[in-house]
Amino acid sequence: MDDAEQKMRFIYGIRSKGVTDARVLAAMEAIDRGAFVRGLFAERSYEDMPLPIGCGQTISQPSVVGLMTQALELGPRDKVLEIGTGSGYQAAVLSRIARRVYTVERHRRLIQEARQVFEKLGLVNIIAVHGDGSRGLPEQSPFDRIIVTAAAEDPPGPLLAQLRIGGIMVVPVGQSDTVQSLIRVRRTETGFEYDELRAVRFVPLVEGLGKE
Ligand code: SAH
User: How many angstroms is it from 19 CA to the middle of ligand 1?
Assistant: First the structure.
């Protein structure tokens, strides 16, 4: 299979899983997932599966990246916060649609590697921060959109507080190591509205900084 055919199959596969938003599909066509996968697993970059990325973490399944991005209803003026940079792939996809993306990761090694890829791909509107994302990024708040790519038992309070009125947050909720629910939260003038999107499986959101 040549590169073009592999890419076409990749996008076709994502579409068939329910990603229909043209902006999301264009962003995922533009960002090469292969740039975010190292070593042994690189050749599986265009398969619809999560893959190991180091520090015991994984790059998410592409169709899930697409569905979460779509659920955010992202626009070109949005300032987005991502918790759980991991490989940086999700942040890169967001950065093609949004004005600016802040992404926070607790493992220093992962944030350093992600920064290198952002630089290589010329993605200048991503600010990658080493820190504990369960506290959010209060100094840059409020955010138009927040996406959490690690599972929490409940939507973290500090993140809800940093969401702009009218804003949307997407977060996997549930106990780690079981099936979690992907939840969409909309902040209204008077409170928060929740809807449940689908079952997902993410690594847990862990408080504090990582060892590496
Ligand atoms: N979005 C990533 C995949 C996320 S895997 C991608 O596109 O590749 C989940 C990531 O969340 C892991 O890298 C993990 O280290 C990170 N994480 C877990 N708890 C965290 C926290 N409290 N703050 C920041 N990052 C966290």
Answer: 23
For ligand 1, whether the C-beta of 134 sits within 6 Å is yes
Q: Report how far residue 149's alpha carbon sits from residue 82's, in angstroms, rounded to the nearest whole number.
A: 7
Q: Whose CA is nearest to atom 4 of ligand 1?
A: 86
Q: Is residue 98 part of a domain?
A: yes
pTM of the model: 0.97
In total, how many domains does the chain have?
1
In a domain, 169, yes or no: yes
Q: Which among 205, 209, 212 is the best mutation to test ligand 1's pocket, defined by most ligand atoms within 8 Å of the CB?
A: 205
212 domain-assigned: no
Query: Residue 29, Cα to own-chain centre: how many angstroms?
Result: 16
Residues 6+ apart with CB under 8 A from 212: 55, 107, 108, 109
Supply the range of the domain harboring residue 20.
Answer: 3-200
Share of the chain above pLDDT 90, in %: 87
Q: How far is CA 166 from CA 43, 65, 146, 148, 151, in A?
A: 41, 22, 12, 18, 23
List CB contacts of 115: < 8 A, sequence separation 6 or more: 88, 128
CATH number at residue 24: 3.40.50.150
pLDDT digits (tens, 9 = 90+) for 146-167: 999 999 999 999 999 999 999 9
Residue of the CA atom closest to atom 11 of ligand 1: 84
